[in-house]
Amino acid sequence: MAFPQTRMRRLRATASLRGLVRETELRAGHLVLPLFIADAHVGDHERQSIATLPDLERLSISAALEEAHEVAALGIAAVMLFGAPTAKDAEGSGAWDEEGVVQTAVRALKRALPELLVITDVCLCEYTDHGHCGVLDTQSGPPRVDNDASVELLARVAVSHARAGADLVAPSDMMDGRVGAIRAELDGEGFAETPILAYSAKFASAFYGPFRDAAGSTPAFGDRRGYQMDAANGREAVREALLDVQEGADIVMVKPALAYGDLIRAVKRATRLPVAAYNVSGEYAMVKAAAAAGYIDERAAVLEILTSLRRAGAEVIISYHSKDAARWLAEQT
Fold first, then answer.
1. Which architecture characterizes domain 26-332 according to CATH?
2. pTM (two decimals)
3. Active site positions, annotated
């Protein structure tokens, strides 16, 4: 109908009216907090600050337990564990060590907080001395990541996490075929009920720098463009997600999040699976830096960003803002 019969502002006049017709809900239960788990003691301390990730820390097991109790009290759905070990080798063998940092943390967390979901990152980059997400083929020219040899090791990692008690395993390497191999290995080892949260559309992004500082996973040579996706390719992202669905993924992910809302929506429509969006380290650091400089209102910006990811179609949001966001959402109720 024409103006003045139709006035869109009528339902924006008060907070109660806006709440009545709000289309998108953001709750603490949609959020996942990443945790960086270091060796038994982080230097001489239980916590070690990360220069490029303000207010975040590398954690010992005991410090991770403290953090997890706070997460659970805030109603956040899950934590996602990333290893930050000091010992590394060419294969990344610490990634599937039954006494590794992530495996030890999973057992401790599930004993202390059995209802809190624990998701584990399945990758080799934090454990290899060269920083790549798989093992290298050095026999035929310049070193390159060997896809199939890496997939075998990633399946071992996933089983070790499931054996420790992980609720979901999340392969982030972007090797072809790894979801199917992990599903087969999990099923064969008696973990048919363990879901896979696949990093299905993970892009070779400029927004990962702070994470690499935190996890010590910067490649020693080259980059990851040979296996992570080109930011220009949307249709390929959908194809990647559909392949992961065929291989047995239970949840698919788009990473990063802020510049990829179109792909969150496209992947959601194509797969009809739950979709996760990873609000990555560089996105977090940008907001923190702008807020510290007084350029933006941090609370308003964070809640707007996270709500936009829900609006795009993500059921799960992995974000370093999760604790602050959960507190702010509680204050609104």
1. Alpha-Beta Barrel (3.20)
2. 0.95
3. 202, 255
